[in-house]
Amino acid sequence: NKHAIIKLNELGKSTREISRELKIHRTTVTRYLKRHFKLQEKLKTATDRIEILNLQEDITKAPKYNLGRRKPKKYNDDMDYEIDQILEFEQSKCRELGDSHKQKLTILQIHEILVSKGFDIGRSTIGNKVNEKRNKKREAFIRQHYEYGDRLEYDFGEVKLMINGILEKLYIAVFSAPASKYRFAYIYTNQSQDSFLDSHVKFFHMIGGTYKEVVYDNMRNVVSKFIGKNEKILNEVLLKMSMYYGFNINVTNCFRGNEKGFVEGSVKLIRNKAFSKFYSFNSIDDARIHLKNTLEKLNESSEIDREKQMLLPYKPKLEIGSLTEHFVDKYSFVRVENNFYSVPEYLVGKKVNIKKYIENIIIYSNNNLVCEYKKIKGYNKYTIDILHYLNTLKKKPGAIRNSKALDLNKKLKHIYQKYYTAKPKQFIDILQKYKEKNISEIENILVEIANSPSNMNNTELC
Fold it and tell me: Considering only CA atoms, which of 120, 355, 169 is closest in space to residue 271?
């Protein structure tokens, strides 16, 4: 319309004719024409380059209506006071909960509170006022630049997947290197210290070196205790790991996710790229394979090969396990994380030391290795080695038929039921004789002996 007004005027048409043709009020037409002529006159006499540029912009730009100066008609001091009280309550709540944003009142909720108190006001007006009060002091950020090998950022992210038809909440440990734009992630069933440490060992082993600094937020695996407002006691195991690998620990300020913004964005990116389309898997291992393939595609454009040259030297895998003492019950079991593992029967009633790792446990007695197991996943489950009970079974051969040790080994149970139901003592003697072999070899020996002619003849005579 502005362009049309000026062009019609240049064609010699009057204000009244322009108004009639464009269906715009005459005063509006007059206002635009007067402003245009005024700017043109200023341009003729202007000599300063910046002044000329500003005049050119004013002449050519579209009309802009300044609505910001219009004051709300219904908004008053009482409403302003109520909003201040609500926001003050919100700040107090966040200090107590230790959360600055996740439970913050929404504009809609604040509007509902005001309406419930009898105020007649629109939501948009309240929204503008609340945003104005919340953003009085906007924070400035400094863009960062990092050299290769200097900085690595770490975080945990949640993901929900269907595993073998069951919905499970899992956790992704994510490493991001801002300089090379490289990302690594691994899926865990929890955010425990074991998972936290294992993710580091996996990453440093995979990457073939160590970064000079690793950046964390204030998660429990990093900070054991806060002292005052700024002092923090770091987790002892994390300190041991940093000493071994040689990296510095950098912990962000509370509620300042932007201080490790690259990994914050990486968590969202990886979760979206890997699991927005595919979320159902037969097992967690299948989900891990899918995640690995997704990361390979994401990292195709990274500069990790150049960054690897600047890393601290590689060190062998660090194995940090927690050492605990456990009592052996009358069934020759030790209970670890609510699951049960068998130990040799001579340890019944005694105490053993167990070193727990992320995927396995090692059992010691008097500093001597007793046995090692892969850690059980679940609750109230058993792992039993039947060879731990041979002396007791020799005394009570009838007990083997319904023993849990036999029941948990389906193949061994099948062999017993097929060949040795009437000969439990022979079954136990064979286990005793070949106990130094692994269980698969023993199973084969049991079948061979059962099918041997001499054994079959003895059976017929019996």
Answer: 169
- Per the listing, tokens 């975080």 go with 155
**DSSP β-ladder status, 213-216 and 151-163:** parallel
Instruction: For residues 248 and 238, give the distance between their C-alpha atoms in angstroms, rounded to a whole number.
Output: 11
Q: How remote is the C-alpha of 443 from its chain's centroid?
A: 44
Mean pLDDT, all residues of the chain: 86
Q: Is the pLDDT of residue 33 over 60?
A: yes
Give the C-alpha separation, 419 to 417, whole Å: 6
**Residue whose C-alpha is closest to residue 432's, from 332, 352, 351, 345:** 345
Alpha-carbon distance of 76 to 117, in angstroms, equals: 14
* Token pair recorded at residue 91: 């700040």
Say whether 356 sits in a helix, a strand or coil: strand
pLDDT of residue 430: 92
Residues of the chain by 3-state class (helix, strand, coil), percent to 5: 50, 20, 35
Classify residue 105 by burial, with Cβ atoms within 10 Å: 0-12, 13-18, 19+.
middle
Report the run of H or E that residue 170 belongs to, with start and end: strand 166-177
317 vs 166, more confident: 166
Please state, in angstroms and rounded to a whole number, the distance separating the CA atoms of residues 445 and 242: 50
Phi-psi region of 392 (alpha: psi -120 to 50; beta: other; left: phi over 0): alpha
The end-to-end CA distance of the chain, in Å, is 114
CA distances to 8, 14, 15, 62 from 20, rounded to whole Å, are 12, 10, 9, 22
Q: Which two tokens stand for residue 245?
A: 């690998």
Q: DSSP per residue over 212-249, as a string? A: SEEEE-S-TTTEEEEETTTEEEEPHHHHHHHHHHTPEE
pLDDT at 393: 92
In the structure encoding, which two tokens stand for residue 125, read together?
């007006």
Taking the mean position of all CA atoms in its chain, how far away is CA 54?
A: 51
Q: What backbone torsions phi and psi does residue 73 show, to the nearest 5 degrees?
A: -75, -35
* Residue in the structure block whose two tokens are 């390979």: 296
- State pLDDT tens for residues 191-200: 888 889 889 9
- Alpha-carbon distance of 269 to 309, in angstroms, equals 26
Strand 339-342, strand 382-383: pairing: parallel
Task: Determine contact, residues 33/5, Cβ cutoff 8 Å.
Answer: yes
**Residue matched to tokens 């995927």:** 359
Please give the C-alpha separations between residue 298 and each of 4, 172, 180, in angstroms, as whole numbers. 52, 16, 12
> What are 83's two structure tokens?
């909003």
Residue 442's contacts (CB-CB under 8 Å, 6 or more residues apart) are 430, 431, 434, 435
